[in-house]
Amino acid sequence: MTWLKIVETTVTGLGYELVDCERSSHGLLRVYIDRLPEQAYDLPGDLVTVDDCEKVNRQLQYALETVDADYSRLEVSSPGVDRPLKTPAHFARFVGEEVSIALKAPFQGRKHYTGVLCASQDADEAAIAAGHAWGLILKPEGGDKPLSKTAAKKLAKLLAAGVDVPQDVEEVLGFTLDEIREARLVPEVSFKGRSRRDESPAAGDVAVDEAQELGGQKK
Fold first, then answer.
1. Distance in angstroms (rounded) separating the CA atoms of residues 211 and 213
2. I need a labelling partner for 142 at 20 to 30 A (CA). Which of 11, 25, 167, 188 fits?
């Protein structure tokens, strides 16, 4: 079993989502985790806590010893307020949320688009079945305000069910995962100027928005 598979198996086995995994030339192994909405945790809340990171870090150190993984320092952290979307499961989880994407090749002279994530309507059946085809509900040209959160979620569900795009939505930009260089959640900012994922968690819960260095030297 490869070190990457060990990381994935360990993180998911503890009830977390593996968002991303990076290795630097200096021996740093950085693992990004997130909580899953249907999973129960020791401390309540949607945010990854320091305890979550420590738990995963300890288990990963033991697990990686079995494959003699080549790293000098292990770091486990939350993905942050603009977490990346990498896999079909990530995209499926955040249908109805605002997402920004960077295309590998320009479309209509642009590579960067932001809109509400929805299921694709015009990709081939194989790509849709594999979970590699998605779309962005774009804000109408010249619109004075974006769709509300509730309206966007309802529209995303209608599109997933194959309903035609309403007239007040100008365009749905379809794309496959092979066509994008990067996709990230757009942080939701409240009237206080703070991101929803930045808000103070429940009592005893500590948000981890910056990387927490919780590992030490490999033994």
1. 6
2. 188
- What does DSSP say about strands 98-107 and 110-119: parallel, antiparallel, or unpaired? antiparallel
* Class of residue 172 by CB neighbours under 10 A (exposed 0-12, middle 13-18, buried 19+): buried
Q: pLDDT (tens digit, 9 = 90+) per residue, 176-199? A: 999 999 999 998 765 454 455 544
Residue with token string 């959160």: 149
Q: Give the count of beta carbons closer than 10 Å to the beta carbon of residue 40.
A: 7
Q: What residue has token string 């997402």?
A: 99
Question: Which one, of 74, 79, 88, 76, lies nearest residue 34 by Cα?
Answer: 79
134 burial via Cβ count (<10 Å: 0-12, 13-18, 19+): buried
Report pTM. 0.76
